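All the exercises in this workshop are built on plain-text protein records. A learned vocabulary of local backbone shapes supplies the integers on the structure line. Once this layout is familiar, the rest of the handout is easier to follow. An example says more than a description, so a record of this kind follows:
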Amino acid sequence: VQLVESGGGLVQPGGSLRLSCAASGFTFKSYDIYWYRQAPGKEREPVARINTVGGAANYIDSRFTISRDNAKSTAYLLMNTLKPEDTAVYYCKPRPSPPGTTDYWGQGTQVTVSS
């Protein structure tokens, strides 16, 4: 299993970013995909989830939109109206974890919201 998150960066408050999660090593279309984030000094928390048929759920608020492209084995997280408190490292994760990968996380992508 390999998860490669990208698309992060430095953005001003109110700005937008689209994160990507390129997955390989498992049958992507058969797994729900979650986005998580971890801010400095805080525990990792779920941000959004998309199931195998495209049903999405937000755990933060409606500023975040999760999507997936099974043909590309890629998930996305569109983040609008970003706030300084959204600053964190963002990770994707298939659920349930593919066999033998419970503790595996990709490198994440840093999102910094600052003026």
The radius of gyration is 13 Å.
